[in-house]
Specification:
This protein is α/β, with parallel strands linked by helices and 515 residues long. The protein contains 17 helices and ten strands. The strands form two sheets. Strands 4, 5, 6, 7, 8, 9 and 10 form a seven-stranded mixed beta sheet that branches. A three-stranded mixed beta sheet has the order 1-3-2, with no helix packed on it. The radius of gyration is 43 Å and the shape is elongated. The two termini are 76 Å apart. About 8% of the residues have low confidence. It comes from Merluccius polli. This is THAP-type domain-containing protein. Keywords: Coiled coil, DNA-binding, Metal-binding, Zinc, Zinc-finger. Its cofactor is a divalent metal cation.
Length: 515
């Protein structure tokens, strides 16, 4: 922006009429500000300096409260070509004084300031010189000779023989002492201000570290870890981090650490936070937050998907809860059910028809889940459109191939897969149907009651997973249900698998830990 000097009768400009830079060697300076929020001494000095500049310029538009930003003072009006430091009040360039276009402010001279500086330097040299401690030698000179040979107490004047110099010297000696006292006071005030700023800086750093979302903010605070991630402890969170660190992208340009990448992802799964909000929390862009979430989900899926596994029959029987043994023996292998997640409405008519659920009256994705009698998730299918029936999902998801001869499967009435399960030598147990009768007989009622008593656990596990990870309760956007590049699975499928694996890492809600 072109600058113009605001001093009366000064035509200095930084650019010509065509907007080209004028190489005249001049600099332009804004009027000093009043630092009213600083300590009292600095505030008073800067206030007087601002008033001195306004008085020197003598423009009607300039007031103490208002100085237009385009009104500046050029270097012609200073002895050294620039303003002095604001705390050097005795410097002739503390305020502009040359070529002001009026006579109300007299031009300052540098002679007195130079002499003051010279005397201060001589005093400092005398104080720093070591005093030789030697025994006094006898001196036989007369007192008159001592006076003649003594060095002068004050340095020789620039213009000896003038009375004005002697007056300035005597008045200057008092000024030196006054300046020394003022400088000592100023140093003390500065030290106090520096100490205050250091303490304030330390407090702000401590507060910022508490608010920052990193290891230090969650360490030794399992309740905060459980709220933000769904995991029961900080040690378990660090265990997950150590497992996935080798696969996380490393780059010096990334602003987030590996811990923050994992924390961002788990916070989105746990709290269902919008991408924009997460970006503000971690001080990154929205696109970066979205990319970090997708990358970390892929890594978590690759490392945690083995936690959702089908255990061997001997392992299941060794830890079978007694209530299953009393009701069905020790052959119960899995309890299955389906749950649906809401998604956005697709634009394609065929996709609309495939994803519309008559049961939910919304567009959904359906998943088949299976749990062991201990409450551990042992099977999770890929996503199917909400229109697909429970039988279709079960027979085409690979669940039947996981069964072995002699296994017992517990399911709801909607799973009409008895023939498919029987083909592999397994048994399906579902609640009894009335089949045209007005009511069930006593035996069917008792079996249905026993089955409902244990089958409810799969619904409890589904409810636990959805309460831990609120992203499963929201409407999923269509970008999550599109197959990933080069894969058959969608991002939503990976999210569901990760949520199942993280749920398995938490204490079971079916089998209570023994005290």
């Amino acid at each position: 922006m072109p600058s113009t000097c605001c001093v009366v009768n000064c035509n200095s400009r930084s650019h010509d009429r065509q907007g080209k830079k004028i190489r005249n060697g001049l600099s332009f300076f804004c009027l000093p500000a009043w630092k009213k929020n600083s300590c009292s001494h600095v505030s008073e000095v800067t206030k007087r300096r601002r008033m001195a500049w306004i008085a020197a310029v003598r423009r009607s538009k300039l007031t103490f409260d208002y100085t237009p930003p385009h009104m500046m003072v050029c270097s012609k009006h200073f002895h050294k070509g620039k303003p002095a430091y604001e705390m050097l009040q005795c410097d002739p360039d503390w305020a502009p004084s040359l070529h002001l276009g009026h006579t109300e402010v007299k031009a300052t001279t540098t002679d007195r300031f130079k002499r003051l500086r010279r005397r201060q330097q001589q005093q400092q040299q005398q104080q720093t010189q070591p005093q030789p401690q030697q025994a006094p030698e006898p001196d036989h000179t007369s007192p008159e000779a001592e006076l003649d040979n003594a060095a002068p107490l004050f340095p020789a004047p620039d213009n000896p023989g003038t009375e004005e110099y002697m007056e300035s010297e005597t008045s200057g000696e008092g000024a030196v002492m006054g300046n020394a006292d003022e400088q000592c006071t100023m140093c003390g005030l500065r030290l106090q201000e520096i100490m205050r700023l250091q303490e304030e800086n330390q407090k702000l750093k401590e507060e910022l570290s508490k608010r920052a979302l990193d290891e230090n903010s969650l360490k030794d605070n399992d309740s905060k870890v459980k709220y933000y991630t769904g995991l029961p402890s900080f040690s378990l969170l660090m265990g997950v981090l150590m497992q996935i660190i080798p696969s996380l992208p490393t780059s010096k340009e990334r602003k987030l650490s590996h811990f923050q990448m994992l924390l961002l992802t788990l916070m989105r799964l746990r709290l269902d936070l919008p991408v924009e909000h997460v970006a503000h929390l971690f001080d990154i862009s929205r696109q970066t937050a979205s990319n970090v979430f997708i990358e970390t989900i892929n890594v978590l899926h690759a490392h945690l998907s083995p936690l959702v596994y089908w255990p061997k029959r001997l392992c299941i029987q060794a830890s079978m809860p007694h209530q299953y043994v009393e009701m069905f023996g020790n052959r119960v292998t899995v309890i299955i059910d389906c749950f649906e997640l809401f998604i956005e409405r697709a634009q394609n008519l065929r996709a609309k028809a495939q994803t519309y659920s008559n049961y939910k009256s919304r567009y959904t994705m359906k998943y088949l889940i299976g749990i062991t009698p201990q409450g551990t998730i042992s099977f999770i299918s890929k996503g199917w459109g909400g229109r697909a029936s429970d039988k279709q999902v079960t027979e085409n998801s690979g669940f039947i191939q996981m069964l072995s001869p002699g296994d017992v499967v517990l399911a709801d009435r909607g799973f009409d897969i008895k023939e498919s399960v029987a083909l592999v030598g397994a048994t399906l147990k579902t609640p009894a149907f009335t089949r045209g009768h007005s009511q069930l007989n006593a035996q069917d009622v008792e079996e249905t009651r026993k089955l409902a008593h244990v089958r409810i656990h799969v619904e409890r596990v589904i409810g636990c997973m959805r309460s831990k990870f609120n992203i499963l309760n929201d409407t999923i956007r269509l970008g999550f249900v599109v197959p990933c590049e080069g894969e058959e699975k969608t991002l939503l499928d990976k999210i569901v698998v990760v949520c199942c694996a993280l749920t398995n890492m938490c204490p079971s809600i079916v089998v209570k830990p023994s005290c």
